[in-house]
From TrEMBL:
UniProtKB keywords: Membrane, Transmembrane, Transmembrane helix
Protein name per its UniProtKB record: Histidine kinase
Sequence intervals crossing the membrane: 22-44
Length: 66
C-alpha cells in the first residue's frame, strides 16, 4: 500500500437506488438458469453411464410369417 502525502481516501458511495422488480425477477431467473445449465453440463461431462447386458425373451409366434 502506497501512502502519498496530502492524499486522503474518501468514501464516495453513491446512494443506492432500489432495484426494479422486473430486473430483479429477470436476474433471479438468469441465476437459476445458470445453475441448472451448469448442473446439466457437469452431469453430461463428468458422469458416465453404466453399461450392462440385457436379454429379452421373444415368443416363437412372433417369428412366424403371416
Amino acid at each position: 500500500m502506497v501512502i502519498v502525502a496530502g492524499f486522503t481516501l474518501r468514501s464516495t458511495s453513491l446512494p443506492e437506488a432500489p432495484m426494479p422488480t422486473l430486473f430483479r425477477f429477470l436476474t433471479v431467473l438468469a441465476v437459476i438458469g445458470g445453475v441448472v445449465y451448469g448442473t446439466i453440463f457437469a452431469l453430461a461431462n463428468f458422469v458416465g453411464p453404466q453399461t450392462r447386458d440385457m436379454s429379452v425373451t421373444i415368443p416363437p409366434d412372433r417369428f412366424q410369417k403371416r
